[in-house]
Design goal:
The structure holds 2 protein chains of 2 kinds.
Chain A lengths: L4 H16 L19 H15 L17 H10 L3
Chain B lengths: L19 H8 L3 H4 L20 H13 L8 E5 L5 H9 L4 E6 L2 H10 L5 E5 L12 E7 L12 H18 E14 L3 H4 L5 H9 L8 H8 L3 E8 L1 H17 L1 H28 L3 E10 L15 H10 L1
Parallel strand pairs in B: 1-2, 1-4, 2-3, 4-5
Antiparallel strand pairs in B: 5-7, 6-7
Helix pairs in contact in B: 6-9, 8-11, 10-11
The chains are: A mainly alpha, B alpha/beta.
Chain lengths: ~80, ~325
């Protein structure tokens, strides 16, 4: 079952909290990726952990090249749209 | 078979790749930790993935790609960068009459593999390819999976890299019998020429931390350096296989996070995931690809591999008898 945007966002927030060690309760959907401490390596960890958690695979060609200025909600939407 | 260390001959050139100390940074990581996310055979290279494959199937398929059409009966195999001996083990399972020599620069891998292969027709040598030497025409097949990335340094000039790669192919070709083959699997850089010499990004800096003294080649460098000594038989460029393999290792590591943290600590586990993330990033963005290539020794070339040495005369005699 393809996860919807809400489930993707919830999973993304959990994993971002884990990777960045930011309190989950302190993360908001409109937080910008680069401002929550996700760098180019961190985003790679986040992507693969979301794939594992939701048992999906992303088509990376469909994901934006520069996600650093996306909000977490926008990133979650992009992830949903890039599932194989 | 002899299992003692080869007495390294002093190379007549400066080592061109990772030093033993640099190799130990990653490969002397506790085998117990690797064992928590690798296959039971300890395969530590990309699998070849087909629909529905599990990790171990993908590693078996990878080896099969290289051995396609090869008669394994009595095969004499050289594994350059043999790790914990997974490929050797898989070959000997398929062909109990085969025999093998494995080279690794990691002391812990040597200990592990020698324990694994006690009583098998396998010799594990603690040596780089540069320090090792074998009688000419000793082997039917040589494999080198996931080690070639260590045969040149990030800071090396292109001419130094090419000279080192050329020496590697020349020596391996000399160790192969007429018609013998080399199966090489390596990550390769897939970047614009202007970016090839610098390689200074957050991801490559992270990988320098994990694999100090290492630098993948380009496809062109492999082909050019090998051309005087080896003919191309088959090749494949498939970065998705490494992406999927690393994703699988990541998932297995996550499943066994408590056990991993018990072995390598919380920070060690975080570092492991960050390393996986870095490799996934370079394959995901296409900066790295995976090259598989099978090459065959060119007949009639003036191979200048060193003359016979005593260290492996027993092995050589055995392979001659089995021919």
């Amino acid at each position: 079952v393809t996860p919807d945007s809400q489930r993707m966002l919830a999973t993304l927030l959990d994993i971002v909290a884990d990777v960045t060690e930011v309190e989950r309760a302190d993360l908001r959907p409109n937080d910008v990726v680069s401002q929550v401490g996700i760098d180019s390596l961190g985003i790679s960890q986040v992507l693969v952990e979301v794939e594992i958690e939701l048992a999906v695979e992303f088509d990376y060609d469909q994901l934006p090249d520069d996600w650093s200025e996306l909000t977490l909600e926008e990133l979650a939407q992009a992830m949903v749209g890039s599932i194989f | 078979m002899r299992c003692e260390d080869i007495e390294p001959s002093v190379p007549s050139w400066d080592p061109t790749g990772s030093s033993a100390a640099e190799i130990s940074v990653h490969y002397d990581f506790p085998a117990a930790a690797f064992g928590l996310f690798l296959t039971p055979e300890m395969d530590y290279c990309a699998g070849l993935w087909r629909t529905g494959d599990e990790l171990s199937d993908a590693h078996a398929a990878n080896l099969s790609w290289f051995l396609d059409g090869v008669d394994l009966t009595g095969l004499s195999l050289l594994d350059i960068g043999c790790g914990w001996g997974s490929a050797i083990k898989r070959v000997l399972r398929r062909s109990p009459s085969a025999r093998a020599v494995g080279l690794t620069f990691s002391a812990q891998q040597v200990d592990y593999a020698r324990t694994q292969f006690a009583g098998w027709p396998v010799t594990i040598l603690h040596s780089s390819w540069e320090a090792a030497d074998f009688p000419r025409s000793s082997f039917d097949y040589a494999i080198c999976f996931g080690a070639f990335e260590h045969f040149a340094r990030r800071e090396s000039s292109k001419s130094d890299r090419m000279a080192g790669y050329g020496r590697f192919f020349e020596r391996v070709a000399g160790w192969l019998r007429p018609g013998g083959r080399l199966g090489l699997q390596t990550a390769v850089l897939s970047l614009p020429a202007t970016e090839l010499e610098d390689l200074d990004t957050p991801v490559t800096r992270e990988l320098e931390f994990v694999f100090p003294g290492a630098r993948p080649p380009t496809v062109g460098e492999v082909e050019t350096a090998a051309a005087p000594w080896l003919d191309l038989v088959a090749h494949q460029l498939e970065g998705a296989d490494y992406l999927r393999t690393y994703r699988c290792w990541y998932a297995r590591a996550m499943e066994r996070s408590s056990e991993l943290e018990a072995v390598i600590g919380k920070q060690g586990f975080a570092d492991l995931k960050r390393y996986f993330g870095a490799v996934l990033a370079v394959f995901r963005t296409g900066q790295w690809q995976l090259l598989r290539v099978v090459m065959q020794r060119i007949e009639g070339t003036d191979l200048t591999s060193a003359d016979d040495v005593d260290a492996l005369s027993t092995f050589a005699a055995g392979t001659e008898e089995s021919a």
